[in-house]
Amino acid sequence: MKKKGHYLRRVFVWQLPVRVYHWLNALVIVALCATGYLIGSPPAIMSNVEASHRYLFGIIRFIHFVAAYIFFFNFIFRIYWGFVGNKYADWKNFIPTNKKYFQQMWEVLKLDIFMMKGKENPSIGHNALAGFTYFLTFIAFLIQCITGFGLYASMTDWWFADMFVWVSNVFGGDFALRNWHHAAMWFFILFAMVHVYLVFYHDYVEGRGEISSMGGGWKFIEEEVFEEEKA
Q1: Which of 77, 80, 173, 185 has the highest Cβ tally under 10 A?
Q2: 129 contacts: CB under 8 Å, gap ≥ 6
Q3: What angle, rounded to 10 degrees, do the helices at 56-84 and 16-40 form?
C-alpha cells in the first residue's frame, strides 16, 4: 500500500547579479528619497556657522547625484540581465504575453486582496502579478531617471547630462519636470511599503523562503511523494 507524503525541494532561483541589483537598488532608493525630500523641502536650520563652512546641502546634493548615477547604471544592468540571465530573470516574466498570465494575476489578486483560498500559485520566481508590477516599476524607474537628469542638465556641462536637455521642454518646463520627479519619489515610497508587506505575507502563506531567497538565491518547492507502507 502506498502512503502520500510531502517533501521540500530546493530550487536555485535568484542568481548573484539579481540579488546584488536588488539590494543595491534598495539602498540607493532610500538615499535618493531621503536626500530628494530634503532638496525639495529643505528644513529651516538656525546656525551661526558660515554657510560655506557648513556646506550641508552641498553634501546632500552630492549624495543624491552619486546615488542617481548608481541607480541609473544599475537599472541599465538589470535590463541587460533580463536577456542573459536564467529563466527566472528573463524579461518575459514581467510582460503579460498570454491568457494564462492574466489568469495567474487574478489568482494572486484573490490571495493578496480578497484573501480567498484557491489553487497554489505555480510560479517559482516572480508570480504573475509581481512580475507585471515590476514592469510598471521599471517604467517608473525610466521616468525618474529621465526627469532627474533633465533637471540636472541645466546645472552641469558634462556631456552625459547634456543628452537630457530636451526633457524640460517635453514636460512643460522645469517646474512641471520637478513635480513629475517628486511624484515618482512618492510612488517608490508607496511601492516599497506594499512590496515589503507582500514579501512577508507570501513567505508566511506559501512557505517557500521568499525572504531568504533574496539573500542566498534558493527557494523551497513542496512536492508530493508516494511511499510504500510496510506491512
Answers
A1: 185
A2: 104, 105, 108, 109, 112
A3: 150
> Which residue range(s) make up the domain with 144?
2-41+55-228
Coil, strand or helix at 45: coil
List of the chain residues with pLDDT < 70: 1-7, 46-53, 115-122, 223-231
Q: Is residue 47 part of a domain?
A: no
pLDDT value at position 75?
95
Cell of 30: 532610500
Q: How many residues does the chain have?
A: 231
Predicted confidence at residue 120, as pLDDT, reads 57
Residue-wise pLDDT for 53-105, tens only, equals 678 888 999 999 999 999 999 999 999 999 999 999 999 889 888 888 888 88
Phi-psi region of 55 (alpha: psi -120 to 50; beta: other; left: phi over 0): left
Work out the angle between the directed axes of helices 56-84 and 128-152 (0-180°, nearest 10). Answer: 140
Which CATH number covers residue 19?
1.20.950.20
Q: Tell me if 140 sits within 8 A of 192, measured CB to CB.
A: no
What pLDDT, on the 0 to 100 scale, is given for residue 53?
65
pTM of the entire predicted model: 0.83
d(CA 120, CA 111): 10
Q: Which residues make Cβ contacts (< 8 Å) with residue 43, sequence separation at least 6?
A: none
d(CA 71, CA 149): 12
How many separate domains does the chain show? 1
Give domain status of residue 46, yes or no.
no
Please say whether the beta carbons of 153 and 168 come within 8 A.
Answer: yes
